[in-house]
Amino acid sequence: MGQRNYKNLIEMQQASCELNKSRKMYGTKTGGRYDWITFGQFAEQVDHLRGGIATLGVKPGEKIGIISNNCVEWSVGAYATYGLGCHYVPMYESQVLEDWRYIINDSGIRVLLVRDETIYNTVRVLTEEIATLGFVIPMFAGSDVEITYQTLLGIGAEKPVDAILPNPEEPIGLIYTSGTTGNPKGVILTHKNLMVEIDALNQIAGEMISKTDRGLSFLPWAHLMGQIQEVHLLLYFGFSSGLVADINEIVDDFALVQPTLFFSVPRLFNKIHDGISLKMSQRGGLIQSLYRKGILLSQAMLQGKNLGLLEKLQLGIANKLIFSKIRDLFGGKLRLAFSGGAELSQEVVEFLDCIGIPVYEGYGQTETTMAVTMNTPQARRLGSVGKAVPNARVVLDQTVETTREDEGEIVVYGPLVMSGYHNLPEETAATVDADGGCRSGDLGRFDEEGFLFLTGRIKEIYKLENGKYVSPGPLEEKLKLSPYISQAMICGANKRNNVVLIIPEVDLLKAYAEENQVDISQTEWYENPKISGMIRQEIDSQSETFKGFEKPRQFALVMEDWTPDNGLLTPTLKLKRRLIVEKYEKMIEKLHTI
């Protein structure tokens, strides 16, 4: 798509909704089917909600918050907010009251939109203790409150107000990063930040995306990655997207929506790869042989090798009988996938390439308006997160302590860097250097052609007793490629060696136990030599490319999942290491004594 010089998100939204007013925009699942609204209907709702909220007396610069999973109302609320010159503050439904209380109070939210009735009844009392919070607005049907989302739409239809076109330097709002320790931090991003990012993505991916494309949205919009891709980029390019209401139904949603684009994080791609690999390993004879041969031939073709007539025939059969069936799991029309949030295993990327779904990895943070590097069809290196995008300069600070000589802390310069953290000048100064460089806390290395490879997190690095440095993240991600391992956390700070806590894929381990005639309770799995031996083999297999001192010597099975609900994962599914260590301290210490 040609470059469009929008100065703010409102200009972009209004132009897109006028250009695409009769085209489908968002689909919402109801009763087993997707119902769609058009860009024109979306624009009308934005206008009406803007007018309705204006009657509540909000002023430019004030904060409008929302606690909601992805829905049409979320995006309508965002653009109604921007058009009032106000700042949007999204929160996750999965967060707890203390997080909501902190964010509402810290940001000074004036109006709060709430989609879930239980959450509404929990947070409405905050109007009595937080002076700035004037209105908590229910978005769900059936509320008997006088002012609701629906009544605001009605009021706005009768009392319209023109949209303000924000100054490019005006904040769009605050994106609170969940963090693995301490309170959330509110990242201040401006309309300019977003427009520079969108323009950069258009320059490198504009030829790949068109208004005829369709996405399937499941990444939370309270996190900037999902928000940019399925709210702002969607408007810029004019494509449509189905909204996933329940991640457990995503396979059905793929079939219903039939997306051509898919934005995800490595965790989902890994699970798909693991599940298919396990199924293929359990198939006998011809199918398993054809699958393996097809993967090898597809890899050879992608590497530019010429296939013989028999090889082409074998690949064609594998594609028709196996690969096409796998693509059907994604709806049958998926042609492009994008991954971010963490490094995706090269093994998984190659697998998806081979079955006909190329995945393009990128890297960034909320503090850098997300993507600062990305792979593209023109410049792609498997295992990397790509080269720097336009308007981003990415360098390494090699003065920090690392696990290898060629790596350093990733530092980003340019107009994608945040304005700072809200109300946290010391944290801002520690993250953004005096020369404007945003210190990521991530470790990486460049190859000779400028492709960036992620190698870990600075704050996760620790020393073993022998003085060797360990970065646990890469090996943890590798361990999770085992179909039997759901989650893993490696520990070993100031100890002789590493140990690992393993959360198994319970259903697969149950099936393994039944197949091997192991008739014991789950709490006894770790003590059984067949099960513990198999898990040990999986750990050894996945860690074979790592150095000896990095490999965990002992492991324990943990039968309680780590989730945002129990406080052991952030809403973006990062490990809260300190809390996990505290919870399993005795178990970890026991492993170190074996």
Describe the structure.
The protein is α/β, with parallel strands linked by helices and 594 residues long. Among the domains are: 9-200 and 221-228, Rossmann fold (3-Layer(aba) Sandwich); 466-593, GMP Synthetase, Chain A, domain 3. The chain is 38% helix and 22% strand. The protein has 19 helices and 25 strands. The strands form seven sheets. It has a five-stranded mixed beta sheet. Strands 2-1-10-9 form a four-stranded mixed beta sheet, sandwiched between helices. The radius of gyration is 25 Å and the shape is globular. The N and C termini lie far apart (60 Å). The relative contact order is 0.08. The model has no long low-confidence stretch (mean pLDDT 92).
Short description:
With 594 residues, the protein is of the alpha/beta class.
